UniProtKB/TrEMBL annotation:
It is an enzyme of class 5 (isomerase). This is Alanine racemase. CDD domains: PLPDE_III_AR (cd00430). It comes from Devosia insulae DS-56. GO terms for biological process: D-alanine biosynthetic process. Its cofactor is pyridoxal 5'-phosphate. Residues 241-371 form the Alanine racemase C-terminal domain.
Amino acid sequence: MAAPAIATGYGGRLTVDLGALKRNWQALDKVSRGALTGAVVKADAYGTGIAQASRAFYEAGARFFFAATPDEGIAVRAALPEDSHIFILSGLYPGSAPLYVGERLMPCLASIPMLEEWLQACAASNQALPAALHFDTGINRLGFRLNETSIVKRLIDSIGYAPQMIMSHLACADTPAHEKNRTQLALFTSVMAQFPGIPASLSNSAGLMSNRDNHFQMVRPGIALYGGRAVAGRRNPMAPVVTLEAPVLMTKDVKTGETVGYGALQTMSRDSRLAIVAIGYADGFFRSLSSSNNHRGTHVAINGQPCPVVGRVSMDMIGVDVTDLPRPPAPGEMAEIIGKQITIDDHADIANTIGYEVLTSLKGRYSRNYMESAAPTA
């Protein structure tokens, strides 16, 4: 006897707008005119799906892609035509050069051991395998120290190797007035002078959007492609990409003085009606979005109206105050968690985090759907 079919489609819905992804890439490509515009697709393309997002960016015109790990790079390679160029931001893992060569992945080399292994692979294959040289200009993550520049140059000159690109990463680009940006730009310019004629890349989304001096020959946007806010304190011009909805399970009346949720952290100050919505921290809806007597939490939208979360977010569900709605939602109606009414950055601000974390946490029990919207008319 065949196993019974498993019911699907009763939980939340995550919808990714591939048309918005394309328009965001094209908008940034216009801003960076004169430089090549890549696409950062690490972390499953910020939670939107690495294969689908990479194909959308390719169709929009992108040919350079940035993944974090070789596994991600392999997924991008499998999704795209042969003329795609894929950089691996985490560099070269020990002993992995043959994999990179076989999959035509370009490591962002960040240490002397990485560089030595890659140059050995070049010698073994008798070809200048493409890679980037990553210099640390002040963020203190990956990257050659600046006092290693002469060693790097000596090693590559010893075999006549020319890297595909030199790069660094800005620490404070989301705050354009920060002095660190000017310091890093000056340091990176000094590194570039040691490698004349080699293309350079410094800008992430915020660097691209805030200062043309940061563009050089390649820009590497990430969060802005996915509709997130890149520059603090400025209006976000990017099209929203993700819509997340979750179903109402039931509604119930709660009396004045009753508490809601674990810990009894919120006491109702009036007779209220709550909708219990099927989403929780297991779905990437953070506990830090909870509400209490002393702290305003986030909100969702039901029937187009903002409704505050009440009490603590639990693993599978939240309580939402729908008292002021003209009619209570019926079981099965969808609450908008992210969309036209509530952005990823709205939730991030309440949770004291960033939109990146909101997006990359969307790994919950959703049905995942892809659509392609047309550009809005003027």
